[in-house]
């Protein structure tokens, strides 16, 4: 489904009080008396798609101008994805865009119900609408657009070489970037390699082990407090088993006291099962205390003050602490750093060989790109000649018989994403005039006709779904006006077209005819934009032809125009 503008609501803009435009998917034309506000319709569309906000365009007495558009788009398509990416909503393929401009000059925009910067509307407009008005910046005046449009016009003949070029360009850019990094940062990389070597040598000399720092910390604590530890173990052992050197004076150790308790309970255990359980637990406690006392005796025997070992441990800890401060949080972190540093050093030491390999590949890719770019130029040049001739023929039928459009291809010194070609559309107003850029070689009215001719030639190749033309028929009439209408209708076969015109010959070709009615006070009333039926079109065309809605001659001529347009479809 092709995106299109379904409805536009305008309030407080220029002479328009309030107007609603319901648009056809095909050719829409807007007519009306001078000063009724036809151009404000185009201005409103421009605001809707990010155009410059001019507070002087706000209707006198109004505090703001509001434009709201309802668009039909493909659910899940490119435009819908862009809207959803910024948090907007697309409901059932319908997108709402709003723009408000205050009398003080402030401007606000909404996209899919979400407030967005006005620039977002401009960005989105590139995929939705092309506005061709005498005061508008034309989309096709952009150099990148002209190149892209010519590529689409070239068609399948360009697809294969452009795909091959794009792949080679991406690889060339990647290789070039890496090569520049390796060569321009040679000093930094050499310094990095020296630092890594120093660190690895320092770590290798110390030869740390994972967890060694924790083990040494514990050993230092034991050696530093050896006397206190041995004394504590001996005292605890004595408390549990007693001192064999002490004269017997009664049971004072834990084992003896537990023995007395156990003997007392054992004597009567047979009289009560509960007390028998207590006797068993006292026996277990005696065994446990004996084991603990044995361990304490062994521990006390193992603890010795060793000043030499303590000094060695402290020295080793100091060396490890130095490594940890530089390379990791602990000895395991130091070993991990060494492993990563070895890998990185291997990469750095292989840079010279890598540079040679990349240089050879870069040279080969440059030769390949040169060949592919030349092939692209050849295809584009052929397409440019066909395109220039086709547009020039269209201009002849649009009352510009002496004008000639050419596509000038220049060559950039650098490779770009799409080749080396710089594409520019130029026009010579007459045979003796030099071809100039479009915005310099044509007047406002001529430029609209040039754009119409270009869009007609590009029809089907340009992906923009909606085209808006303001005063495309300025300065022409008669047969040329019929040809303009015929070409607008042709463009409407592949895109939605909206035209503001004062020529009945153009209006007759429309699928939807909207008229802006002017109230007696110069404003446009709420129902000021009306979609005309066949009888209404006859009356409006008669007014445009003869100045009188009910003129018999005018009505006959209007019917003739409508019949001509219908037959041409």
Outline the structure in words.
With 569 residues, the chain is α/β, with parallel strands linked by helices. 55% of the residues lie in helices and 17% in strands. Among the domains are: 1-128 and 464-479 and 495-558, P-loop containing nucleotide triphosphate hydrolases (Rossmann fold, 3-Layer(aba) Sandwich); 212-329, no CATH class. The longest helix is centred in the middle third of the chain and has 47 residues, at 351-397. The two termini are 22 Å apart.
Which short descriptors sum up this protein?
569 residues; 6-stranded mixed sheet; 19 helices
Please outline what is shown here.
By secondary structure, this protein is of the alpha/beta class. Among the domains are: 1-128 and 464-479 and 495-558, Rossmann fold (3-Layer(aba) Sandwich); 212-329, no CATH class. The protein has helices at 38-48, 78-85, 118-125, 143-154, 156-184, 186-206, 212-224, 226-241, 254-266, 273-302, 307-327, 331-349, 351-397, 438-441, 444-458, 478-491, 504-507, 534-546, 552-568; strands spanning 4-13, 16-22, 27-32, 64-72, 94-102, 107-111, 114-116, 129-132, 404-416, 419-428, 436-437, 466-470, 496-500, 512-516, 529-531.
Element layout with pairings:
Elements: E1 4-13, E2 16-22, E3 27-32, H1 38-48, E4 64-72, H2 78-85, E5 94-102, E6 107-111, E7 114-116, H3 118-125, E8 129-132, H4 143-154, H5 156-184, H6 186-206, H7 212-224, H8 226-241, H9 254-266, H10 273-302, H11 307-327, H12 331-349, H13 351-397, E9 404-416, E10 419-428, E11 436-437, H14 438-441, H15 444-458, E12 466-470, H16 478-491, E13 496-500, H17 504-507, E14 512-516, E15 529-531, H18 534-546, H19 552-568
Parallel strand pairs: 3-13, 3-14, 8-12, 12-13
Antiparallel strand pairs: 1-2, 1-4, 4-5, 5-6, 6-7, 9-10, 10-11, 14-15
Helix pairs in contact: 4-13, 5-13, 6-11, 6-12, 7-11, 8-10, 9-10, 11-12, 13-15, 15-16, 18-19
């Amino acid at each position: 489904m092709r995106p299109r503008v379904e409805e536009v609501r305008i309030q407080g803009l220029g002479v328009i009080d309030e107007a609603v435009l319901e648009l056809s998917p095909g050719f829409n034309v807007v007519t009306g008396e001078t000063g009724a506000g036809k151009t404000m319709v185009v201005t409103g569309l421009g605001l809707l798609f990010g155009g410059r906000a001019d507070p002087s365009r706000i209707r006198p007495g109004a505090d703001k101008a509001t434009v709201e558009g309802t668009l039909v788009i493909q659910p899940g398509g490119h435009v819908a994805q862009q809207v959803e990416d910024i948090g907007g909503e697309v409901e059932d393929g319908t997108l709402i865009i709003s723009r408000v401009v205050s009398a003080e000059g402030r401007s606000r925009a909404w996209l899919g119900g979400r407030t967005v910067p006005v620039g977002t509307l401009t960005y989105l407009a590139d995929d939705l609408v092309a506005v061709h008005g005498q005061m508008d910046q034309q989309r096709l005046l952009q150099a990148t657009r002209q190149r892209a449009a010519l590529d689409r016009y070239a068609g399948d003949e360009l697809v294969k070489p452009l795909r091959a070029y794009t792949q080679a360009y991406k690889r060339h850019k990647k290789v070039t970037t890496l090569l520049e990094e390796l060569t321009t940062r040679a000093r930094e990389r050499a310094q990095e390699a020296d630092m890594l070597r120093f660190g690895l040598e320092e770590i290798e000399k110390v030869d740390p082990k994972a967890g060694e720092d924790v083990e040494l910390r514990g050993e230092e604590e034991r050696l530093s407090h050896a006397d206190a530890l041995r004394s504590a173990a001996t005292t605890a052992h004595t408390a549990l088993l007693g001192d064999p050197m002490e004269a017997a004076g009664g049971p004072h150790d834990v084992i003896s006291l537990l023995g007395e308790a156990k003997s007392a309970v054992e004597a009567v255990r047979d009289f009560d099962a509960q007390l028998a359980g207590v006797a068993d637990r006292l026996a277990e406690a005696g065994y446990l205390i004996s084991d603990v006392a044995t361990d304490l005796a062994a521990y006390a025997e193992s603890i010795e003050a060793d000043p030499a070992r303590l000094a060695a441990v402290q020295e080793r800890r100091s060396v490890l602490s130095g490594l940890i401060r530089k390379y990791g949080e602990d000895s395991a972190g130091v070993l991990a750093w060494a492993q990563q540093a070895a890998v990185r050093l291997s990469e750095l030491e292989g840079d010279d060989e890598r540079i040679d390999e990349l240089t050879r590949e870069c040279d080969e890719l440059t030769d390949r790109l040169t060949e592919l770019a030349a092939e692209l130029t050849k295809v584009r040049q052929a397409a440019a000649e066909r395109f220039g001739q086709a547009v020039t023929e269209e201009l002849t039928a649009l009352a510009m018989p002496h004008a000639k459009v050419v596509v000038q291809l220049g060559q950039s010194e650098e490779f770009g994403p799409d080749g080396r070609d710089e594409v520019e559309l130029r026009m010579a107003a007459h045979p003796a005039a030099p071809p100039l850029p479009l915005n310099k070689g044509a007047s406002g009215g001529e430029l609209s006709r040039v754009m119409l001719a270009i869009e007609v030639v590009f029809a089907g190749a340009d992906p923009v779904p909606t085209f808006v033309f303001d005063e495309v028929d300025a300065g022409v009439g008669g047969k040329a006006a019929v040809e303009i209408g015929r070409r607008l209708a042709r463009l409407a076969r592949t895109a939605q077209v909206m035209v503001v015109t004062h020529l009945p010959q153009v209006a007759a070709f429309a699928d939807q005819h909207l008229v802006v009615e002017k109230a007696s006070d110069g404003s446009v009333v709420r129902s000021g934009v009306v979609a005309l039926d066949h009888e209404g079109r006859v009356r409006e065309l008669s007014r445009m032809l003869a100045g009188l809605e009910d003129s018999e001659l005018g009505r006959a001529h209007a019917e003739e125009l409508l019949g001509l347009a219908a037959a041409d479809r």
